[in-house]
Write the structure tokens for this entry.
Amino acid sequence: MKKKRKKRVPIGVKILGLVISLIVIIVITITGVFIVMSFKKDQEKAGNIAHQTARSLSYMPIAQDAFYQNEKIEDLKNIVDNLLEDIEASAIVVTYHNRFFIVRGNPDTIIQLMDDPANEKALIFGSNYVKTIGDKKNKVLVGVSPIFVEHGEYKQLEGTIMVAYDQKQILKDVMSESITLLIVSSIVLLAGLFGSIMLAKDIKKDTLGLEPGEIADLYHERKAVFMSIKDGLIVVDQTGVINMINRSAKHLLNIKGDVKGLHLAQLFDGADTIWKLSNSDVSKEFEYCGKVMLISRQEVRRHNQVKGMIISLYDKTEIRKMARSLSEERHYIEDLRAQAHEFKNKMYVISGLIQLGKTREAVQFLMEETSSLEDQNKFISESIKDEKVQAIILGKKAKASEQHVTFNVHPESALGILPPHISLNALVTALGNLIDNAIEAVKGQDETNVSLFFTDVGNDIIFEVSDNGPGVREEEGSVFKKGFSTKGEGRGYGLWNVMMEVNRLSGEIEMQSNTKGTTFTIFIPKHP
Amino acid sequence: MKKWLLLTATALMLASCGNGTGTGNESGDAGEGKTDFPKKNIEIVAPASPGGGWDLTARTVQKVLKDNDLVDKNINVQNKPGGGGEVGWKYLQKKDSHTLAVNSGLLVTNKLLGTSQLTYEDFTPLAILATEWQSIAVAEDSPYETLEDLMKAIKEDPKGIKIGVGPALGNDDHLSLVQAADEYGINPSDLNFLVYEGGGDVVTALLGHHVDFVTTSMSEVKDQHLAGKVRILAISSDERLDELKDVPTYKEEGVDMVFPHWRGIMGPPGMSEDEIAYWDDKLGEMVQTDQWLDLLDNNDWDDYYMDSKETTKFLGEQTKLYEELVEDAGLGK
């Protein structure tokens, strides 16, 4: 079941929503609590006032006298009116026994009191109390006191006083008080609205106008891109601490595990060279763990300040390998072409002899050629069990022959099947280069001699290539350096490649050279 | 949403941890308190001025407990008058278990009459100690020979018959008559009460023929009855009393009611079971001492002892009884 992607709520709306709902909840809660508390308090106060007023009125002689003296009734009415105003009660009622004697105040409240007289207990038991009458909507708090008329020795219960507070009135008063609170809350709400809009704007400014969701998407996208790039990429901050590193970079630098937070210098030797790169556009070749890479850096700037750096590593080893195998192929083709040329020359000789009618000479020449070829081939195929080496040597023989260079394989040479860790490519590179160099060295001399000796007696496989060329003048070490050549610009990778291959096979290479010739010897262990 | 839930859950966990430690401490304290009760002096609250019935009860209990060495600690009586017992009892509510207060039927009726919110359930009832009995008395030359005569007369002309009572309406003197009248089918609000300052004034009014009859404690009229100046028509006990063999009970006179004017003692709310057991033990012993029984006789009280369990049950019954009485009267039946 595929869910439709949820629509994102903009950050501004989120903040606004949160702030408004928070403020509204707070305002409602505080106002509600205020109203409930005030209502309770006012109700309690009303109850107390009702009770006390009823009680003190009942003690006033005039309340007792009014029952018997008509002229006192007006006075009592006046007192009740004044009291009603002073204590803001809804109604005050004086009864003579259960007959309503004086009624003052809100008619609705008085009708409620008539319907449900709150004074029954006071009339029978002479007690003082506060009673709530009416239904839920029209509650009335009534303070009730009995009126005892003094008769000297004794007193008699003759009536009651009821002081009533309508709860609706109390609630109304509380509500009007809470309006101030609501006004203040509204101002706070407005301030909150303004503040949250500003906050949202500010956040968007920091995020270049992007919503957080978009930022997250961007982040994931960019991370995936970053990780999938074939070139090695390392992102560091201005101090050189690693923030990000992709898979290729880890692979190139032989790193496993998490390196985030480490310093570049802890990551690999020679990392300081990166800092020495002055111009971020220039890339530099860098060698590490037998890998050749191009390293370059790009500064990350914000507000014209360097915030970090992106280091890219570009593996040249692969390209180098490709170029080399291409050149090996070219050598093969060259060797084959040379061989074909040789045979073509011999074919001309045979064809010439036949045209001249010297059939016997032709047959004899053919016989000699084939037997010498067979001898050679036979020797090579017998002394060398490994076909890879056979192929290389036969190729080189043809090349030497074409260049008119004498190329001999020492008759004592012998080689079994090579162990599998020695690849054809490595041999082509190592042996082929040495032989090519030797052929090149003696080319053009009157007497040319290149000889190859190999043996696998003992723990090492030994190849020795000798020539009678003019020798190498340079120090032995520098000939193996990359780019060293006596042959001009753009060359000089041969010996360096030879050494790389030999090193890879854990072997060694030696050179002896004087004016009469040069000998290179390669030792490759049978068991790496 | 999940985050909110998580936050709430954390808050709840914190809150519950807080509660846990709190209760642990409290129970520890209570555990220590059990073993050596009482730890300090005992205070008995008389919720009235010195000289009244409650004061007398408190001081009698103090004297008997002390004289018989029933309690190691000192016992003091505190007078907290006001509000028909309300002031003293509210004071007790705030004290620890070393404070007790005497009580009576007012503990039940105050709430019913609307003058107080307190009930016996706001306290720890410990014991009912003694009771007086209510009586109805007429002057020696009154035309009413029996209770029945009197009630018939009231029924005919409720306003014409003046009744002496004191010191206030709503007390047991008043209520007992309201109940009796109710049993006779007389509307209590029609009764014509003359309210005097106290029991003594009521008797004086009766002797002076200012009232037709009085409702009061038996002890107020006993001497006059024995002297032949007044006639007690009925007494609210379930059986005739030894000292007044000639006076019939209400029951005998056809009013199915026993009306004790009891006095008891209670502690503050939340007393431990051990503390309650302590007082059951001590007060149970006290009411059996000769001194206590002598003092009861002197005050014309009857032994009415109930232990804490019986007292709680009794107070429940009393509440129901008074409730019916007051509500019926309130409806003007």
Summary: Chain A touches chain B at residues 97-98, 120-121, 123-131, 144, 146, 148, 151, 153-157 (CB under 8 Å).
